[in-house]
Structure formats: structure tokens, C-alpha cells
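Here we describe the complex-level prediction in full. Unlike the single-chain runs in Section 2.1, the two entities below were treated as one system.
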Amino acid sequence: MPLELVNSKVVKSTLAPGQNVLARKGAMLYYTGDVHFIPHSMGGAASGMPSMGGVAGMAGRMMSGEHVAMMAAEGQGEVFYGHAGLYVEVIHLDGSSMLTVEADRLLVHDGYLQSSIVALTSQGGVRGAVRGAMTGQGLFTTQLTGQGSVAVLSHGGAIPLQVGPQHPQVVVDPQAYVCHIGNISVDISANVGWRDAVGRGSGEAIQLKMTGTGTVWVQASEQKF
Amino acid sequence: MGLEIHTPYTLPVNDNVPGNDYAFCVELDGQPWFTSKGAMIAYYGNVRFEPLGQTSMPAIVAARFSSPLYSNDWVLAQGQGKLILGDRGFNINSYDLDDGNLTIRASNLLAFQPTLDLKQSIVPGFLTLLGTGKFLASSNGPVMFAEPPLRIDPEALVGWADCPSPSHHFDAGWMQNFLGAARGFLGANSGEERQFDFTGAGTVLIQSSEKVLDDGHLLRHIESQTVTLGQNSLRALHNTIGSQLQQ
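The structure predicted for the assembly as a whole is:
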């Protein structure tokens, strides 16, 4: 059952028996019908991600348990989700590509999507970790695969930007980055000079360079949450 | 898109400022309005804001505003002119009550006409409006109207009209979990174990939840309740607060 936007800040999911929906804990606004909520620890090492080691998966679980706990909704009815007045964007996955999103920004997704928490180090080696540390992003991001829909949070709304084939590269501000889908590799482009070191830089020294084919969502704000 | 500059003549009468859901224009023409303190952004004309304690219309305040707990948060706006109100960048809407009743979260009520009676709700942090008239409410995101039966996150609740019998509901799944139960008793709930349950005829007003709860109202409500507690209860409360502060 796809997620449906009610207004710019609220998303509705229709539950049928035997299905479940995973959401950020505490993000339920209201529901009708017979629905139960169960705490859910996000699986670190999903079967779809054979490359992710058990250790990274477990660490991911622990990190996510610490940071963004998820809960599953089961039963029959309609559940409405929203969080802290942030804007919600619904993205439909057709099964062909993978969505990468920071766990903080994940609001709801269909329970039958496969999710895995990925250490950035396994994505881009040391550079990935450096990117995480320097951009203030977590060291772990969530990857979702399968067919279904995902709702992500943004401050002030998210804008989709196409990457490739005509536009091979998009550079985004790490604070404005929301999520990306498709075959995109993310690289940090640090342009830190002595001006930044003394606090007189342009403020745009660290950027994320996205290359490949797919879509990147950015928000019109530099607020992290 | 041209830049539109407003004048007292182009500003609407009791409607949102054109193209802006976050600001609302009220026309004052002799009849006063109760407005929440700090809600005024700008005004045209000759408008006075009087604290409820020293107003020139004590009879209206005495008859309509029976909520001493909140009297410091409200002023009486009177005079002639156009008054623009706003609140935290929230969406603002006006509602008409016709011989009805509506209970609303105190921090979401922005202004109301003195043809309405304001009472303090039994539910902490909420106010009840009775009678006929207009009031303004702010909400984080557009307000959703839903009909019971439903259950709602306490933070997302803006208010309810008529009488859908509000009660607490605790999700059994969370309560069976020992940690969930402990958290529930300590009041440090981060999940969905605690919900408000609405059944019966009426309408429930819902917003996308607000993160920063304005707990000033709630605090005063709790403080006002402590006078009914005995020595032992006060001591127990003291201990609970102490252990929560240490967390």
C-alpha cells in the first residue's frame, strides 16, 4: 500500500492485515482502526546486502537503537505520520534501485522494503568516514531496496535534482543533502584553504560531489535534525 | 510575481493576509478581541492592548475570561483598526463557533471574540471555548479534521469540538515490554505507548506534531494542582522530580 501525502507535513499509510509499516518512533500523529505499535530494532545486515559484514550491521543496529529507534505498525486501519512540523516527501521505489537516506531523515517506509544500515566506511573507504565526520552526517546511513514507498523528512521541502546522463555531476551542500536514489557515488570535495582555517572562508568549503545516474533530493535549508 | 504592498484598505477583514497562511488580519471596529500576548505583529489604526488585570472593560473580562491561570498570557485588544497576528510561523486559521463548544491546546489559541466564554479545561494545558463567535488558532502545518473513533499522539492534538469523550489509551504491546512500562510510569515517553483516545460524536483537530512543547501552561497547571497534595504526596513528587532531573 503506497504512502499518501495528506498535506505537506503529514503522510497517511493504509494498513491491511499481514502487512506492517516501519516508522520513526514517536512520529505517529493519529490512527483509526485496530492498529498496534511494536518497538522495532532495525536489521543491520539485511540479506540483500551480502557485502555488509555482521560487525558493521551490529554496530549499525546499536547506533540506530541509540539514535533513531523505529517502530512497526501492524493491524488494520489508517495511520498518519509526521514529525516536528518538518516537510514530508514520498518517494516510490520500483525495485530497480536503492535509496540511501540518513536515519534521522527517515520517517516511514513499507515494512517489506529491505533496509540495512551501512557504515560509511564500507561505502567509500576512509574517505567515506571522513565525509561523515566532516559533514556532520552520521557514520551510518540507511539503505532501502525493494518495491514500495518511503517518506523522508526535510526542513522546508525537498527538491529532486537529476544526476546524469546529461548532467553527470551535481554538487550539494552536505547540510542541504536529504537522500539519493540510483547508481550514484558520493564523494567529498574539500576545498579548505587557510581562509577557512581562520574563519574567513566562503562557508561552502566542504561539498558533496554526486556522480553517476539517479536523483538527489536537497532541502532549501541548512538545518540538521 | 509583483510585490504587493498592503494598506489598511487592501488588508482583508478577518482573514489570512493574502498569500500568507502564517499571518492573519483581524478588523477591530469597537468590539474588543482577546488576544494571546505576543501574537501581535503589526497594526493600523488606533488599537490599545490592555492587560486583563487593568482593562477599561472589567465586566467583559469577568464575564468571559474565567481562567486565572492564563490571565497573564492574554490581553484585550480594543479600538479601531486592522490588527495582524502571527504565532511562531504556524498556520493560522479562524473558526466560527455557533452555540457550540471547542477545547483547544492553550498554546494554539491565538485570539477570540468576547462573545465566546473561555474556561479552563479539565485536561491540563487545554482551554474550552463556549458559545457563539470567532476564534483564531495556530497549528504546525494545516489542521486536519478527523472524526472519532481514533487515537492520537498527545503532541499532535490541537483540540476537539463537541464531546468525543477524551481518554488515555496505553498500547498493550508497549506496556508488556518491561522497559516500555517503566518509561511510561516515569513519564519519559518517546514512543507511542501513550495516546489520547476519542470516541463518540464530534470532531478532532490535528496538527503535524510540534517538537518544542510550550510547557509554561502545563507547568502552571501542575503547580496549581500541588496545593491539593498532602505532605507525603509532595515528598513523593519531589523524589520523582529529583530522579528525573538526574537522568
